[in-house]
Specification:
Lyase, Ornithine Decarboxylase, Chain A, domain 1; TIM Barrel; 9-stranded mixed sheet; 8-stranded parallel barrel; 21 strands; binds ligand LLP
């Protein structure tokens, strides 16, 4: 199970017991399996073998530097969406010329920082951004690699908050305007060298990829006919993972779609997976604080909350909930698993079947390696949970638990209140 499995009825991350980690770092905490990350990366890279392809890990999924470094050591570059992520990538050892900068709202300061850093590519999402990038680059005598991210107007058939390729979404440039923007940029001395597309996240049906990639291929042909040089195609990320036992998209089928649609264009292909590489490798371990039998509901109240893992309440996401210590004699119950935060939305699961839980028990939310810790907040003045990386029988705390003192120290009381 993705680097996590039971040994003698106890849940382990590789060879490290989650019970022992809980005793060491307290709960809640995130635990990641380096082996599972390596396995996912290798599978992804293998599926693309034979293609001229590079993998740029989408840091937004999990930007802990130990995770970035684990992927960098396998050859991954980085897809970043802020100056902060760019600095994280650099600090974790990713060379500037392996960094792609995506995102719909790059500020002047971020563009300048990325130009100065000498990153490999800017994925530009609007005419206004293109004009600004050209101005800033020309002023510095820089010639950045520019790809235009298109909006293919494709429905990715995923949760509405993480679909990005429809016309009503804020992302990318309308297909009809791409050619004109190539002309404009070329006339300004900064001819783009490629196209980019990313239609959404957690895609479990591959058909929308095929539609989008075909549009990229058609547009490549059109732009080449117009005399433009299209050397690179960035196909984004988005490949979904199985959060339950249900069917999951097949990597080989995904790669077959890539080959079929854009494999013969003589372009360097770039990929930006996030969730696929790290999602399954993580668990969020939490302790049951109370069990509260209700009139018509049974509540299991745990010490993790929506500030630690917001996916269930934000996207109605399902994460499996498993006991850290298996008890064959435990009865199955139906319960709502909730956190301590003062909102009804602080609910991880409703009407979930799970083994009877008692105060003090440890339970784990699976597949929380992506968009877990990175989306955490300190709501309700809850310090950020620690992160632990396991590799074989080794483990290291790769982010320690934030302290309440650190939280308080960020505030300042103005003079006039003293
Ligand atoms: N490239 C671009 C331009 C993106 O916007 C994203 C994700 C990725 C790559 C990586 O996508 P992935 O391979 O991870 O699907 N917080 C949400 C997911 C938001 C994804 C945003 N963009 C969640 O928890 O489901």
């Amino acid at each position: 199970m993705n680097g996590h499995d039971y040994i003698d009825g106890r849940l382990y991350a590789e060879q490290v017991s989650l019970e022992q980690l809980a005793a060491e770092v307290g709960t809640p905490f995130f635990c990641y399996s380096a082996g599972a990350i390596r396995q996912a990366y290798t599978a992804y890279a293998d599926a693309l073998s034979g293609l001229d392809a590079t993998i740029h890990y989408a840091l937004k999924a999990n930007s802990n530097q130990a995770i970035i470094r684990t992927l960098a050591s396998l050859g991954a570059g980085a897809d970043v969406v802020s100056a902060g992520e760019m600095q994280r990538a650099r600090a974790a050892g990713i060379a500037a010329d392996h960094i792609v900068f995506s995102g719909v709202g790059k500020t002047d300061a971020e563009i300048v920082a990325a130009l100065d850093e000498g990153i490999d590519q800017f994925n530009v999402e609007s005419e206004a951004e293109l004009r600004r990038l050209i101005e800033l680059a020309n002023a510095r005598g820089a010639n950045p690699n520019i790809a235009l991210r298109i909006n293919p107007n494709v429905d990715a058939e995923t949760h509405e908050k993480i679909t990005t390729g429809r016309q009503e979404n804020k992302f990318g440039i309308d297909l009809a305007r791409v050619s004109e923007l190539f002309e404009m940029a070329t006339a300004a001395g900064q001819p783009p060298i490629g196209l980019a597309v990313h239609i959404g996240s957690q895609l479990t049906n591959l058909a929308p990829f095929e539609v989008a990639f075909r549009q990229v291929a058609d547009l490549t042909a059109t732009l080449r006919d117009q005399g433009h040089r299209i050397e690179r195609l960035d196909l984004g990320g988005g490949l979904g993972i199985p959060y339950t036992d249900g069917p999951s998209p097949d990597l080989r089928d995904y790669a077959a779609i890539v080959r079929k649609t854009v494999g013969d264009l003589g372009c360097e292909l770039m990929f930006e997976p996030g969730r696929f590489l790290v999602g399954r490798a993580g668990t969020l371990v939490t302790r049951v604080i109370y069990v509260k039998p209700g009139a018509d509901r049974h509540f299991v109240i745990v010490d993790a909350a929506m500030n630690d893992l917001i996916r269930p309440t934000l996207y109605d996401a399902w994460h499996d909930i498993v006991p850290v210590r298996r008890n064959g004699a435990a009865q199955q119950i139906t319960a709502d698993v909730v956190g301590p935060i003062c909102e009804s939305g602080d609910t991880f699961a409703t009407g979930r079947q799970l083994p009877e839980a008692h105060k003090g028990d440890l339970i784990a939310f699976t597949c929380t390696g992506a968009y877990g810790a990175v989306m955490a907040s300190t709501y309700n003045s809850r310090p950020l949970a620690p992160e632990v990386l396991v590799d074989g029988d080794r483990h290291a705390v790769v982010r320690r638990r934030q302290t309440i003192e650190e939280l308080l120290a960020q505030d300042a009381i103005p003079d006039w209140l003293n």
